[in-house]
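Structure (tokenized):
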């Protein structure tokens, strides 16, 4: 990533995907890479209309970290 010159320094790790749900993985990566690391839930700010309010938060927390690729593809303008 740095070699492609998108950024010059990595100062934080955002962990997403199904593996972000492994117990202790966020702390393990942060400790071993010596960088702040956080679990990233890509559905955090997305409204899920049609779900009852009581289920909405539980659903987001359960599946959000696993939806990084799907959300990324859905945001691309060249994919229909």
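Design, position by position:
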């Amino acid at each position: 990533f740095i070699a492609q010159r998108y950024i010059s320094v990595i100062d934080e790790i955002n962990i997403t995907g199904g593996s972000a749900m492994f117990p202790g993985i966020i702390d393990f990566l942060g400790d071993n890479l010596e960088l702040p690391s956080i679990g990233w839930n890509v559905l955090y700010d997305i409204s899920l209309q049609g779900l009852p309010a009581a289920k909405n938060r539980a659903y987001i927390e359960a599946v959000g970290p696993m939806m990084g690729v799907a959300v990324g593809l859905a945001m691309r303008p060249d994919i229909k």
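Reviewer-requested clarification: The beta strands are 13-15, 37-39. Residues 17 and 67 are 6 Å apart (CA to CA).
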